[in-house]
Write a structure and sequence with these properties.
The complex is a heterodimer of chains A (342) and B (292). With 342 residues, chain A is of the alpha/beta class. Chain A has two domains: 145 residues, Rossmann fold (3-Layer(aba) Sandwich), CATH 3.40.50.720; 180 residues, Dihydrodipicolinate Reductase, domain 2. Chain A is 35% helix and 25% strand. Chain A has ten helices and 14 strands. An eight-stranded mixed sheet of chain A has the order 8-9-10-7-11-12-13-14. The longest helix of chain A is centred in the C-terminal third of the chain and has 20 residues. Chain A is globular, with a radius of gyration of 20 Å. Chain B is α/β, with parallel strands linked by helices and 292 residues long. Chain B folds into three domains: 37 residues, no CATH class; 64 residues, no CATH class; 125 residues, no CATH class. Helix content of chain B is 51%, strand content 14%. The longest helix of chain B is centred in the middle third of the chain and has 15 residues. The radius of gyration of chain B is 19 Å and the shape is globular. The mean pLDDT of chain B is 89. The chains are: A alpha/beta (342), B alpha/beta (292). Chains A and B meet through helix 1, helix 2 and helix 8 of A and helix 1, helix 5, helix 6 and helix 10 of B.
């Protein structure tokens, strides 16, 4: 059996996701929707196997795919996903999913009610190192986390911007909070749990005109865990976007990024065969290969899991459904509020 | 047709690229801040008998190529294996400006080549983008300017592009790429991939031949999709007159020691190895271990 998938939006993520999911043996990409006529023309000229539409509603009405991948700029995610729910279509949405908590909760509810598969592209959850970090925490290697720091850096915005394009305003989903902090917050939700309180948030501009380039905040938990968040997308010292997380517990410490993990243990661990003191684990020690590679194992893994979830009708395969992704938007909302009040 | 070099000196070590550790990457980027430090290592490699260089078309490649062009009499026996494009340059531009503005900026604002003026006269990007093959040719020319005047043997397409297009089964553009590189640059077309078995199968199906395929090949199967077994069986049945195979990431970013790595590689049916190293001892050791 093959499932039919439609892709909404042929920007950078839409183009990449097309290539990856097209290689799944039980997926047929039946349609794409794109508002730019130039992109539609290229597609219909060269890619004959998928129908092209200028409107997402037409795609869902006429092509009736089993599932869609939402890869439009973020401000359109809500309306597209809502229409899909109405039509009984499963949805994978790119992060940050929606632009506010209310919309996110509403979508989570309607997809749960309609029994539709739903997933958000927080790709770090499928990264070999971060997935391994999760199992180290679950197995209590460092005991309960007490303090942590979640960071993300990149050299994305390194020149004064003219304030145009969807990345330039919050209303369209731009800014370092929606684009980058969302990843670092989701990683916190995934590894530690959702914070109960946000405080001391700071957002500053370096190059952007309307949106923040640097973000920091403090997360507090009723269980007395405290964590720091630090984001900078104007840092040219990073060749590519990098997530880092440092977690301290009573029995040790974890320092992880997408490629490697350093683990300090107070006592040796026999199950994992790690010694007392420092242990370094590289991605080459723990990776699992994927059937087709374009941009890193995690990108393939997340989309193949989405397709397999539909094929097996088993939502439990999904990490980061709409409900979990709405936690990130709740935190983002609290951070914006915290900054305003300050 | 003339065979590719058996040993090719790579460039990741110079540009702060390490797929296993960002800390190592940063240390290397500091070590090779000065161009003369890079040139020193190239001279070590040539002293060890290497006569071929693979170089990605990033900003630093401009200075490297300028040097070798100026000193061509000293280096006339060196073969060049450019890999294009430098993907992060495009990724950042696209992230900042979007795809259409990026194309406009690259092909129209920064490029004074005469062909481009003709294209603008004909209606600019609107005309151009209807013809994705022509657009690809212009992007190749843009990247290849860095290597003008050097003895280019193979032009490689970076894996992020190759594998993206492979996902689409984009036969037409693979055909066009191979033809354009052969005709315009009198070089062999090369494709870097992390999906060698699938690419090999597709190229065979599409009857695109005389292509050099460069892929990760290491004993732990790192960056080898779908798995190491299918890589080995692909090479077992490969006709190297049609597809010469070049192994990269043979040490899996340092996870495998050199001796073990090349014991494994020497048993495989590869025609060539590209490796990078930053000291004379490592270069010498690696050259002595490669026996393909």
């Amino acid at each position: 059996m093959k499932i039919r998938i439609g892709i909404i939006g042929l920007g950078r993520m839409g183009i990449t996701h097309y290539s990856i999911i097209n290689r799944h043996p039980n997926v047929e990409i039946s349609s794409v929707a794109e508002t730019s006529s130039m992109f539609r023309n290229i597609f219909s000229k060269y890619i004959k196997s998928a129908k092209t539409f200028d409107d997402y509603k037409k795609l869902m009405d006429i092509d009736k795919p089993d599932a869609i991948l939402i890869c439009t700029p973020p401000q359109f995610h809500f309306q597209v996903a809502k229409y899909a729910a109405l039509k009984g279509i499963h949805v994978f949405a790119e992060k940050p999913f929606t632009l506010n908590y209310q919309h996110a909760k509403e979508l989570a509810e309607v997809f749960e009610k309609n029994g539709l598969i739903n997933m958000v592209g927080y790709v770090n959850r499928y990264n070999d190192v971060f997935a391994f970090t999760k199992s180290l925490i679950n197995d209590n290697l460092i005991d309960k986390p007490i303090r942590f720091k979640s960071e993300m850096y990149s050299g994305t915005i390194t020149k004064d911007d003219k304030g145009s394009g969807w990345r330039a305003t919050h209303e369209t989903g731009g800014g370092a909070v929606f684009e980058m902090a969302s990843h670092a917050i989701d990683l916190v939700n995934f590894l530690i749990g959702k914070p109960d309180k946000v405080s001391g948030t700071a957002m500053d501009k370096v190059y952007s005109k309307n949106v923040e380039d640097i973000v920091s905040t403090t997360f507090k938990y009723n269980s007395e865990i405290i964590g720091l968040l630090n984001i900078n997308w104007s840092d040219e010292s990073y060749r590519k976007p990098t997530n880092k997380i440092e977690i301290f517990g009573k029995e040790g410490k974890i320092l992880a990024d997408q490629y490697s993990l350093k683990l300090f243990l107070k006592e040796a661990n026999n199950k994992y065969n790690y010694r007392k003191g420092w242990n370094t684990i590289y991605i080459t020690d723990i990776f699992k290969p994927v059937p087709f590679y374009v941009r890193g194992n995690e990108f393939t893994r997340q989309l193949f899991i989405f397709a397999d979830t539909i094929l097996n009708n088993n939502q439990s395969l999904v990490s980061c459904n709409f409900r979990e992704a709405s936690d990130t938007l709740d935190i983002i909302g609290q951070m914006f509020k915290d900054v305003k009040e300050d | 047709m003339e065979k590719i070099d058996k040993i090719i000196f790579g460039d990741n070590q110079f540009f702060g690229i390490n797929h296993m550790s960002q800390e190592k990457a940063q240390q290397l980027s500091e070590k090779f801040f000065e161009l003369k430090e890079i040139l020193k290592v190239y001279d070590y490699a040539f002293e060890c008998g290497i006569e071929a260089v693979m170089l990605n078309s990033n900003d630093r490649a401009v200075d490297i190529c300028n040097y070798f062009r100026k000193n061509q009499n000293k280096y006339e026996h060196i073969n060049w294996y450019p890999s294009i494009p430098y993907p992060h340059k495009y990724a950042n531009l696209v992230a900042e400006k979007g795809i259409i503005s990026t194309i406009n900026e690259l092909l129209f604002k920064n490029n004074k080549a005469s062909g481009v003026f003709n294209m603008i006269a004909k209606g600019g990007s609107a005309v151009l983008t209807k013809d994705i093959v022509r657009m690809m040719e212009m992007l190749i020319d843009l990247e290849m300017k860095i290597f003008r005047g050097l003895n280019v043997k193979v032009v490689f397409l970076q894996n992020i592009i190759t594998d993206l297009l492979l996902g689409y089964d984009f036969e037409e553009i693979f055909v066009a790429y191979a033809e354009y590189v052969s005709k315009k640059y009198n070089a062999k077309p090369g494709l870097i991939t992390q999906n060698l078995p699938l690419l090999h199968q597709k190229l065979t199906e599409w009857q695109i031949e005389n292509v050099v395929l460069c892929a990760s090949f290491n004993k732990i199967g790192y960056l080898m999709s779908p798995n190491i077994e299918s890589y080995i069986s692909t090479l077992e049945m490969n006709d190297s007159d049609k597809y010469e195979i070049m192994a990269m990431s043979t040490l899996a970013s340092g996870a495998v020691n050199a001796r073990e790595a090349y014991e494994f590689i020497n048993r495989q049916k590869v025609q060539s190895v590209v490796f990078g190293a930053s000291t004379k001892t490592h270069i010498k050791e690696t050259v002595s271990l490669i026996n393909i």
